[in-house]
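Dear Dr. H.,

I hope your travels went smoothly. While you were away I took the liberty of generating a structure for the chain from your last submission, since the lab meeting agenda had it listed for discussion. I wanted you to have the full record in hand beforehand rather than looking at slides cold. The sequence, exactly as received, is reproduced here:
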Amino acid sequence: VQLAESGGGSVESGGSLRLSCAASPYTDTTYSMGWFRQAPGKEREGVAIIDPDGMATDAAFVKGRFTISQDNAKNTLYLQMNSLKPEDTAMYYCAAARGFRYELRATDFDYWGQGTQVTVSS
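The corresponding predicted structure, in token form, is as follows:
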């Protein structure tokens, strides 16, 4: 599975961005997908994941602000980010794993994209 993120950029605090992750090849829908982020000097942390049935798990720090979704017909994963804060500044990575995943744990995911940078200024 190859993953390619897009949609990152620079915004002011309170702004919005929509990240996309195109997955290929995509032979079936039994993958869990997720978004993780890593800021300089910090560990990679889970933002949101979604299982093959469409059930999402969000990190506490993004509840009410970020929404993960997927379009299986387009083999694309999305992360809509609203009310962005400077502390959301990080490299955002798309990840995939065969089967069901319910924890925001990077080690549970096998495939990774190259990342897209999100910078939020105050």
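Two observations you may find useful: The mean pLDDT is 94. The radius of gyration is 13 Å.

With kind regards,
E. W.
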